[in-house]
Protein 1
Amino acid sequence: MAANRTYIKSFCTIQNNQISLNGETVFGTEQTVFTDFSKKAYQFLEMNYPKFFKMDNLSKLAFLGAELLLRTKGESSKENNTALVFANKSSSLDTDVKYQNSISDTENYYPSPAVFVYTLPNICLGEISIKHQLKSENSFFIFADYNPEFMEKYSNILLKTQKADKVLCGWVEYYKEEYKAFLYVVDTKDELEHNQELLKKLYKH
Amino acid sequence: MIKEVYITETNCITPIGFDVTSNIKNIGDEVSGIQLHDKPKLFHVPFYASIIDDADLDLAFAKITAATHYSRLEKMMILALDPIIKKAKFVFSERTGFLLSTTKGNVTALENQNLESAYLHQLAQTIADFFKFKTEPIVVSNACVSGILAVSVAKRLLQAEVFDNVFIVAGDEISKFILSGFNSFQAMSDLPCKPYSINRTGVTLGEAAAAVLVSSNKENAKIKVIGDGSINDANHISGPSRTGEGLFRSIQSALAEAKINSSQIDYISAHGTATLYNDEMEAIALNRLGLENVPVNSLKGFYGHTLGASGLLETVIGIQSVQESKLFVSLGFDTIGVSQPIHIIEKNEDKNIRYFLKTASGFGGCNTAVLFEKVN
């Protein structure tokens, strides 16, 4: 098989109340809780998307990252075959705990479908797919740690087998105010060569 | 030349049997695992579900190991994998992958504030350590398509020559967590579920574990994996697309890769959860592809909806259908209750099956389709 090269088109990191895009800090707030930070980031990005406020924190985190990398002007009507390959450590555990608390006590039993639906990590992929109209390959994986090796191999498979034209990869970890998102677009053309070493370097940035 | 990929071993642990043979016997006799349960610790009123008996599980598990510190789900998963690992005659290496598929894993651990056990990678590591896999486990957690998506992921990893063999285990158990959640959606049936029926009123939940060995070695092949697709609806997070767009495109993607036409498909094992919207969506997607005359069943009438296990469990049974040239009844079906015609299997019958399609759909707008071809 030919060793077709793939490239990182753009990347972003969200952590410690800061957002950076392609290595440059583009937004930040003072120390605050994630709900507040994510609201300010939403305002900064001038999104008009009220559904954002119904999402759980994991979805908000992934959604903000995707918004930074996928917003395009004047291309919205074009079919866009960008696959989503996401992973994290804590799955939807932050919302799982919240939901569990709503059913633990028989005196105080209030299971809500609006919470239950977010007890699946792949819901954030659904949110991104809806916003960017991505009728494309999507899958969510869980690893003990950030796993650039797997992400590189799996996204290259999707490109090579032409299941996708581009791949939006994301490590989106959220548990109880501890969060980190590192997202990047892998393409068959561009300048930054897509490999594990670079992915390790950019993640640490 | 893209590598060919086969499934060479299968197994399943369900309320109607702890191996494939007993499951097929019970399906043939139309014996369902769904029963009325009165378990106030799980749900405040009696409910229908397909639940594995604890005593049976412990008895079978004691034959494998004396260790007792494993959770129910871990026991189910270990029991599912054990015989196929014993049968596989190779030594585990860096070329042997291990994929675990689940939606909620050990979520019941949260009831006892045992956070560590609720981590899915922890569950996967526990199973990996039991069998001494050499590679880091890969967990697929993509709602109700997880089980069949794992087959697709394994196939892709084999084709990219990351591994030579991949063991997959898929499992989910009944819990207060999922019962209350599906109930909060008003998605639960108060009688055993009736996929595609005019009388269907929702899901019956179930639990199971299934395991397969996916290999690039044709020896002992039960079936060949020839195409797959896993495409999002981009429509709604908790309901399927009205047009079945993601499922339609997933099947199209699988057909294109396999280079066959939809008219060549002989049998479809569909998702068929028996909710109003899911079954209707599937009927629309199948019609859009001209698949309305292909025999189709949902196995939810036997097993309930086993979440992350369902796609793999139903694949295991589907493979047996192909091997034994048998179409199994879609249990619970009576009068068609979807707006587009589809050919529901109403009684067990013999049929030679060359091409078999497995599909699933789930929350988050996800869908997966995998195409299989009989091996001669």
Protein 2
Amino acid sequence: MKTILKLTVITALLLSFTYVNAAETLNGAGATFPYPVYSAWAYDYSKIAGVQLNYQSIGSGGGVKQISARTVDFGASDAPLETAALLKDKLLQFPAVIGGVVPVVNIENIKTGQLKLDSDTLCKIFLGDIKYWDDAQIVKMNNGIKLSHSDITVVYRSDGSGTTAIFTDYLNATCPAWKEKVGSGKAVQFPVGIGGKGNEGVANYVQRTANSIGYVEFAYAKQNKLNHTQLKNAAGNFIEPSFESFEDAAATGDFDPKKDFYLWLTNAPGKDSWPIAGATFILLAKEKADTNKKVVKFFDWAFKNGDNKAKELVYVPLPALLKDKVRAYWKEKGIY
Amino acid sequence: MPLQYKKNPADVVFLTTTAIAAFSVIIFIIGIFYILVYESSPAIGRFGLKFLTSTEWNPVKESFGALTNIYGTILTTVLSLLIAIPVAIGIAIFVTEISPNFLKAPIGAAIELLAAIPSIIYGMWGLFTLSPIMSKYVEPFLKEITAGIPFVNILFKGTPMGIDILTASVILSIMIIPFTASIARDSFNLTPSIVKESAYAIGATRWEVVKNIVIPFSKLGVFGGIVLSLGRAIGETMAVAFVLGNNHRITTSLLDAAATITVTLANEFAEADNDIYLSSLFYLALVLFVMSFITLAIAKIFLIKAERKYSR
């Protein structure tokens, strides 16, 4: 009994200390994709500013729901909200960091970046219209590469995800048949293939299954050394996924502060742009000016000091021009 | 006239606390049921009972049906029970009747440990270890030996990828073995040793003793253990989510990906951002709730019937 009493007192003391420490805490929730970079930024920021960031990566849909219910200080979503939706829930929105999606393949004797695809072939593969790797359309694009007559296995994300939203938005925008048959969203009914849970599930299935193709986040493909493809972009050039091609997409994409930066960064017009990129967004509650200022201060700090950290973690920082646009947006809304 | 006595206050406290504990279960169940119905009412209003027979699961077109999920849930549950029950009973027979004494404790502990492993670990193990083994060795083998047999070969059509109903069922069966095994072991142990000894005395073999005395004597307990496993298998989520491929289609091959209700809920809940989508997920949860209720009720009826027969 005495030990229990002692333990209770000690725990109570410990808890009260953490309470004092946690006095300055920002609570955020949402997208899983930017979680590593937000937490890395938050760690550095807490050391200099003494403000803790408590970010729950519960998924983009959850982030929108939580900020709409005002249970968190900011929400995060990979899918931007349109102005009408923002007005309805009285929200503000700005981009925080850029990511992208890359098709990854597992074909014998094909090295990373060797296979060239365009939106039409990618669309037909994921629709199940192109069934074999030696399909005339693929062969035509890949002169000099030997492709065997083997079944294509398609791998997709089984759980709802921003990755799927960006990928299907790209197919939707470039391929009428896809738009008509499947559509875009965080979870869609894929006509063919098998679903892996999370980026790691897709990566694992692709690595294990011969002659397969899937899609994962750029960071994930790079860290796990998956074989990516080249893609033909809107300007008609074949592009490899890289920091530069993502930055180019972000720079040429038309982020409009008047539309609260609503933009799917797919099929960007730049001549070196990777076609399947996307920004991840932060959502703020309009009426909470004081907490918004604190959140904005954190992201402002991150924009100034966090680029290297972001790159270390294979995220693409916002281009300087876009950062200035975001700052102007903050100023206009009176939170900067 | 009944005997008058003063109620002991400790007794009253004891009575009320236990009664509260017991009734709280009923309140929880009713509360959960109410919330499920309340949250799913938009989907019920829109899809009605057609939800149960529709195979479409399309968030983009906001058209939802549960049949593929129900099908996957039932198929994986039945398959895993088929695999698990013989193994579990085998374990129980070995531990109680055959194994030397010094082996009983370690095997018993190992079984209970199997039950203590979190399901997410089974899932990861299934994805990284079991599923390559299934796709490289087990499934091609099954394909080969069933190739010539009509109807059976339909079950093993397609490319063996290790991410399918069969692999999921194998993992599920490993997860539910400890439940059936340890309860079967306990009920086997309850067989009066005097009966067994008499059987041995009149010259019965070990197999005959197990078959004619131990198993009939403890049928009820074993069945109870199976029901417990059934409940676990229907509701298991994470272990299955990693190896089932979440495919909303009805397939006849065990080497195809499928979806179960719980896996769909786990995969899609966080990102379901429009109301009808979320409501459909709640509807799906309601279907699972009713399904488990019905299966457990049927099992209970069987148990009661068997009990009556037995006591006669």
